[in-house]
From TrEMBL:
Residues annotated as the enzyme's active site: H165 (proton donor), C261 (nucleophile)
GO molecular function: amino acid binding; dimethylargininase activity; transferase activity
Native organism taxonomy: Bacteria, Bacillati, Actinomycetota, Actinomycetes, Pseudonocardiales
Designated name of the protein: Amidinotransferase
InterPro entries assigned to the protein according to its UniProt record, in alphabetical order: DDAH-like
Family, similarity comment: Belongs to the DDAH family.
Name of a matching Pfam family: DDAH_eukar
Biological source species: Kibdelosporangium phytohabitans
Length: 268
């Protein structure tokens, strides 16, 4: 069953691929600014039409990746753990998001000492916080997240640089009866064993699903927002009783982002 969610998003007013900090980014490929704004607006409108609440933070010039709000905080039961970016090009984003939370009634925001890129590498299942490491988030950030957020953390190791954040290789389908979809080849063998043990009924994505950013999806427990190309994954989800909803993210993909990257969930 779907549950109403609260999301924080940032319009891609200043979005461009001005540098390369992941394998998907190529500054020689121009961004269509009108198209990326329309694509982002469609994503936002989709959430609203589904009954979710969408908050917005003002984009800032000089921060082209600020649109990827999921990377800037993790919020569980009203506790906020901010982000500390590995790439200096994105470092200033963290303080803008910290101020947004302070100005919107969250006065106990903790800024991390270890590098963590928030929901890029942290996925709340309703029972555990799955925490990725290997490319961006430091392993020490996992213990810090457990201490600040007060939830059990399960560490997972990413091994494929194309899937540099956990949210490019895994997403949570349902928090009430926790289940996930993921691409096993993005993880170390030990992490695969952990995922099989915790989620024996998980949806297993194909290489095509992963390459089309199908795992950078957003689920409300029934409706699953995913890229238009991820038809194989959508078929599996339909078979499980979920309702896939396609969105076009062609411009956002130029920076290695998709629906989830643009969507921070505020829990409590």
């Amino acid at each position: 069953m779907p549950t109403t969610r609260r999301y924080l998003m940032c319009a891609p007013r200043y979005f461009e691929v001005a540098y390369s900090i992941n394998p998907w980014m190529d500054p020689s490929k121009p961004v269509n600014h009108d198209l990326v704004m329309r694509q982002w607006q469609t994503l936002r409108d989709t959430y609203v039409e589904l009954g979710h609440k969408v908050e917005q933070i003002d984009p800032q010039p000089g921060l082209p990746d600020m649109v990827f709000s999921a990377n800037s905080a993790t919020v569980i039961d009203g506790r906020v753990l901010g982000a500390r970016f590995r790439a200096e090009q994105r470092a200033a984003e963290a303080d803008h998001y910290r101020r947004w939370f302070n100005e919107n009634g969250y006065h106990n925001v903790v800024m991390p000492t270890c590098i963590n890129e928030a929901e890029g590498d942290f996925a709340w299942t309703g029972r555990y916080l799955l925490a990725g490491t290997g490319f961006r988030t430091d392993p020490g950030a996992h213990a810090e997240a457990q201490e600040v957020l007060g939830v059990p953390v399960v560490s997972l190791h990413l091994t494929d640089p194309r899937y540099y954040h956990l949210d490019t290789a895994l997403f949570v389908l349902n928090e009430d009866e926790p289940n996930i979809a993921y691409y096993p080849e993005a993880f170390s063998e030990g992490s695969r064993r952990v995922l099989r043990r915790l989620f024996p009924d998980a949806v297993i994505a194909t290489a095509h699903d992963a390459e089309t950013f199908g795992l950078n999806a957003v689920s409300d427990g029934r409706n699953v927002i995913l890229p238009t190309e991820s038809t194989g994954l959508a078929a599996q989800l339909t078979d499980r009783g979920y309702e896939p909803i396609f969105v076009d993210i062609s411009e956002l993909k130029k920076s290695g982002g998709g629906p989830k990257c643009c969507t921070m969930e505020i829990r409590g």
